[in-house]
Amino acid sequence: MPQSNTLPYRLMVLLALIQGLALLLLHQSIELDFWPHREPQWLFAFYSAAVVAPTMLLLGLESTHQRVVFRYCGAFTVVVCLLAYYVGSQAAPVAHVRYQLLLAIFVASICVASFKALMYAQHFASGRTLSYSHLFQLSWRNFLTLLLSLLFTLCVWGILMLWAGLFKAINIDFFYDLFTEVWFYYPCLALAFGFGVIIFRQLSSVIDTIARIQQALMKFLLVILVFVSVIFLAALPFTGLAPLWETGGSLLILWMQALMLFFVNAVYQDDPEIRPYPLWMHRFIYLGIALLPLYSMVSFYGLSLRVEQYGWTQSRAWAFLLWAVFALFSLGYLAGIARLRDQWLRQLSWVNVRMGLVVLALALLVNSPLLDFRKISVASQLARLDTEQVSLVNFDYAYFRSDLAKPGYDALMQLKEEVGEKHPEIRLQINNLYADPFNRVVGSTQQELASAITVIQGTLSEELKTAIYKMLGQNPWRMRQNTAYYLTTIDLNDDGREDYLLIEEQLHRHRMTLFYKEGDTWFYRPMRGAGQAINANTDFIKALREGDMLTENPSWKTLTIGGQTFRVQDHAMSIDFEGRVNLQGRNFQK
What is the 3-state secondary structure (H, E, C) of 319-338? Predict the structure, then answer.
């Protein structure tokens, strides 16, 4: 490997090895269930340190200013670890909180923050005056170096698997067993990544060439994108905004703004005096950019309308954050265009340097208690419940369970305590959100289920309670959806004994189950709709309470031939003289 005066090779290889060993240790803590596996706050913090610090140092270290880069990266890593500890604490209790979304948001936001922090750390370490052109160069070098290094690592892993597969094909399993051991592939792949970074950092001129190639490609795409955005805005007065909101228009508009801003910054990247387009096209481009605040106004209106109607959710909070960032970029560019006209690129550089720091700060703040969208969402949705904008029946308990981690868990536990006595069916819903339906684990006790059943007629005996509880134990997921339970007596087989009909009410349907006793054993049979959907409505329950029920004997008897039983279908089919088959009023050509 050729030597260089700018890269500390030995230190970089050591960092890569340390990173691999640290990740191996954390993996083993999960696999073998030792500390910090059961404490997600520490697990998040240690993983953050193991990933962020070595990666930033691998990409940013140079022999000329190692101490400065270490100082900046070290300080940033401490901040990230503190935030990771807080975010990890939102994943507790581990047995009840789903933290997949929590983890995905944390990883994405910290990747953005680390990318920005590394870029500024490298710039400050170089001792240059703050310059957008240098920041842009550093950002593309870091991004492409990281991307190509990961690709190199993947290729190394592929070659190892090919090696293992070839020898396994001739019954030599040693290499396959070795290469798939975690103690081997963590350090091996970490070293491969480290060598990839070293290789591609030495090819900075090639990386810059790739960046110029993508700039040339995006020059044409930006023109098309600006044309589309202008035509779209021109069409809005004729179509109105209503169709836009019906198809998720706010998200589409944010995407349009994001793409416009990305392509503008990918094309206008170096000297503000250099224009990659002829003057007339340059003016067309900045005309489209000057219209971006209109997109911000439209998306603000749409997002505000949604929040007013349905309250804050985590996704709407993120949408507003992105809206604010895009609006600040757009207004900054508009100010430059209005003031400098053809020379507005000077303003672009000024805005981008400062907005980069704003984006860095926001990417960190969203993982802190100061800007926790989960808590904002919980407070908003509970406020809507308190003001009766949404009822207990229509409240989205599953959203709290699946998306809001610990704040959602704490809110549901508190809500269960507050309304559980008066609305035991709500307590059942919440309890079973945290049960395991795949293993048929019921989240509530038999007594809690019994307290939620409204007995319209008859008596809910202990034996029947047990029978109902065991039946629902076979399908515990139903208890997450049921909003009410009713029980009444009926004799459907004319044997002179009372049978029991359990009605499970859901938002859009009813589910009925017949319970009957033969000897000392309880049996149950599900009941299906006879040709029509069983919809949830107040008339159904009202009729049930008033005893408005009618039983009918079947028109056709059951036929048994040789021990095999046959029943006439419920729906008759007729054939007219033209040879067409008619089923429930619908004709089908024969």
Answer: HHHHHHHHHHHHHHHHHHHH
What does the alpha-carbon distance between residue 59 and residue 57 come to, in Å, rounded to a whole number? Answer: 5
Q: What is the pTM of this model?
A: 0.86
Decide if 42 contacts 104 (C-beta within 8 A): no
The C-alpha atoms of residue 300 and residue 296 are separated, in whole angstroms, by 6
The dihedral region occupied by 562, where left means phi > 0, alpha psi between -120 and 50, and beta the remainder, is left
Q: Establish if 254 belongs to a structural domain.
A: yes
Whether residues 155 and 231 share a domain: the answer is: no
Per-residue pLDDT 10s for the chain (590 aa) are 344 446 888 999 999 999 999 999 999 999 998 999 889 999 999 999 999 999 999 999 987 788 889 999 999 999 999 999 999 999 988 888 989 999 999 999 999 999 999 999 999 888 888 888 888 889 989 999 999 999 999 999 999 999 999 998 888 889 989 998 999 999 999 999 999 999 999 988 888 888 888 888 888 889 999 999 999 888 888 888 777 777 667 788 888 899 999 888 888 865 666 777 888 888 899 889 999 999 999 999 889 989 999 999 999 999 999 999 999 999 999 999 999 888 888 888 889 999 999 999 999 999 999 999 999 999 999 999 999 999 999 999 999 999 999 999 999 999 999 998 999 999 999 998 988 767 677 788 899 999 999 999 889 999 999 999 998 888 888 888 888 999 999 888 878 888 899 999 888 888 889 998 888 889 998 887 654 555 556 677 777 777 777 777 776 777 777 777 777 665 544 444 454 444 443 333 33
What's the number of domains the chain is made of?
A: 2
- Name the nearest CA neighbour of 228 among 256, 265, 264: 256
In a domain, 300, yes or no: yes
216 and 189 in a common domain: no
- Which strand (E) or helix (H) includes residue 450? helix 446-452
Please tell me whether residues 284 and 249 are part of one structural domain.
Answer: yes
Q: Which among 354, 353, 397 has a CA at the least distance from the CA of 378?
A: 397
Domain span including residue 331: 204-371
Identify whether residues 349 and 234 lie together within a single domain: yes
- What is the three-class DSSP state of 518? strand
Q: Residue 404 burial by CB count (10 A; 0-12/13-18/19+): exposed, middle or buried?
A: buried
